[in-house]
Design goal:
The protein has eight helices and nine strands. By secondary structure, it is an alpha/beta fold.
């Protein structure tokens, strides 16, 4: 089958998707639609399938059962999708060169790259560190650089796997500001998080996973104020979901 580039990556539709690893079911017949709009935050206990869901949405792995479509196509290129991991790998080169590499992979011409590097580094607040070796940056700076590399793809869909999990409050704020600005520019953000405060600050809607299944999905205000399932109520109380 010829892989076609859809006119839009959205909506992302998961239809009864299951995924297994080592004999363990990570996601079990999950049906979910991710539509354009405000950020979608995926929450749930460790092992609930958040990272696996993001990797499936990116197209890095394929479901064992069920199917995923992007913009109405069951097979599509990743041209306008990007993902940032909790611990991104930095290339052995400068901050600016990391971004230039991402731009080259995205097909940006050599003549355009220098200006785009400057623009992206300014966007994430790293202009003063352009010539610093990327691997010597702090954790928060590396995460902002990872966001710059992802934005170099001009994504319509940006997937984030707990990007602030190991950061201090000041670094978390700077990363969140970049995420909010990206969302306001029209990029669809889908982010896994363990932080209910972050849900309140960023989320437009919330997806709760538990035991590899979709437990609840709805607007952030309703989810936080009026959970409709026992699992959601327990999660908001801080109880363990087993």
């Amino acid at each position: 089958m010829t892989v076609r580039a859809p006119s839009s990556e959205l909506p992302v539709v998961l239809d009864r998707v299951s995924f297994r690893a080592g004999g363990t079911t990570i996601l079990d017949r999950l049906s979910l639609t991710i539509a354009p709009g405000a950020p979608t935050i995926i929450v749930g206990p460790n092992g609930s399938g958040k990272t696996t869901l993001l990797r499936l949405c990116m197209g890095l792995i394929s479901p064992f059962e069920g199917g995923i479509s992007w913009g109405g196509y069951w097979k599509a290129t990743m041209a306008r999708r990007a993902m940032v991991f909790q611990r991104p790998v930095m290339l052995r080169r400068s901050t600016a060169a990391n971004v230039a590499y991402a731009l080259a992979r995205a097909g940006v011409t050599h003549s355009e790259r220098a200006a785009r590097v400057d623009q992206l580094l300014a966007q994430v607040g790293l202009s003063d560190l352009a010539q610093r070796a990327a691997r010597t940056l702090s954790g928060g700076e590396q995460q902002r650089l990872a966001l710059a590399r992802a934005l170099a793809r001009d994504p319509e869909l940006l997937l984030l796997d707990e990007p602030t999990a190991s950061l201090d409050p000041a670094s978390t704020r700077r990363v969140e500001e970049i995420i909010v600005a990206a969302a306001q520019s029209g990029i669809k953000i889908v982010m896994a998080s363990h932080d209910l405060g972050q849900v309140r600050r960023i989320a437009g809607d919330v997806v709760l996973l538990a035991r590899g299944a979709l437990c609840e999905q709805g607007g952030a205000d309703d989810f936080l104020s009026h959970p409709t399932t026992p699992e959601a109520a327990a999660f908001l109380r801080g109880d363990l979901i087993i």
